[in-house]
Write a structure and sequence with these properties.
The complex is a heterodimer of chains A (113) and B (162). In chain A, 39% of the residues lie in helices and 32% in strands. By secondary structure, chain A is an alpha+beta fold. Chain B is 29% helix and 20% strand. In chain B, strands 1-2-4-3 form a four-stranded mixed β-sheet. In chain B, helix 1 (12-30) packs across helix 2.
């Protein structure tokens, strides 16, 4: 059965495609988002990671801002690109379904509904 | 070269006009009512004013326009493609919006949504000539692919006085 909260973070370029995805019953928390970001970083070589240092920082800042804003609902997409390269070097955030980073109160309300 | 909506990240009024520009542009190309596809606000209702300025889903295809603050001294537009949720073709357009880019953007969006050009065709045709680093091959075609001019001054958000 399809899980209600689905998405992916992805490191991409013309020659790279690594990702960490989620499909779960509850919206990922900020903490889970940051942990998935670390998992994605660990999949990259030092060279590929270095090319995306700023972009990962931007992704983490976006997640934190989302949390501060009470969370985000799908569909949501953000692409953090390194324009120093011509090969599409970037880190993408994709919220396909459900929500991300909702406040505990909202999650409780969703559970009750 | 004149940048359009140059102050969009610092003036919400300009930002909103900038969004309306893309909506109107896409509607003129596709002859459909176009609404943003991706959410533009947090769960608390606060609108997100950032570079991911406009998106749309039309004819089972997606576009996300990412507008950057002007930093190049030449026209800047680059494109990428991906599959949204592993099924829907998605075009990501990153640009600095200027009078020189406007016509090319319209041609690109027409190719993507109306002609339904393949990802490879779109990428090969538009990606290289328009990148900032090899701009010398770029021939502005805004005179041919002219987009209707908004009646508002882009930099100030005020009505033009002509």
């Amino acid at each position: 059965m399809t899980k209600p909260h689905r998405g992916r973070i992805q490191a991409q370029s013309d020659s790279l495609e690594e990702s960490v995805s989620w499909a779960q019953d509850e919206p990922p928390t900020l903490q889970q988002g940051l942990e998935m970001t670390e998992q994605l970083k660990n999949k990259l070589s030092k060279k590929e990671l270095k090319k995306r240092t700023t972009q990962f920082n931007e992704l983490e800042r976006f997640m934190k801002n989302a949390k501060d804003g009470g969370g985000i609902y799908s569909p949501m997409f953000r692409s953090f690109q390194n324009d120093d390269f011509d090969d599409g070097t970037r880190v993408d955030f994709e919220l396909w379904a459900g929500a991300f980073g909702l406040s505990v109160l909202l999650i409780l309300l969703m559970t009750l509904i | 070269m004149k940048y359009l909506f140059e102050n969009f990240l610092h003036d919400k009024k300009v930002y909103n006009l900038n969004e309306a520009f893309y909506k109107k542009l896409l509607e003129s190309i596709t002859h459909q009512i176009v609404e943003p596809f991706f959410k533009k606000s947090f769960a608390n209702g606060q609108k997100i004013y950032d570079e991911h300025i406009f998106s749309a889903k039309i004819n089972d295809r997606l576009v996300q326009i990412i507008q950057k603050e002007p930093s190049h001294d030449k026209p800047f537009l680059k494109i990428m493609t991906k599959k949204w949720e592993d099924k829907t073709d998605m075009l990501i357009v990153t640009l600095e919006l200027s009078n020189l880019i406007k016509g090319e953007l319209k041609r690109l969006l027409h190719s993507w949504f109306v002609e339904k050009a393949s990802e490879d065709v779109v990428k090969n045709y538009f990606a290289k000539p328009l990148s900032a680093k090899n701009y010398t091959n770029f021939s502005p075609s805004s005179a041919i692919h002219q987009v209707a001019e908004p009646t508002t001054d882009y930099e100030t958000g005020k009505k033009e006085q002509d």
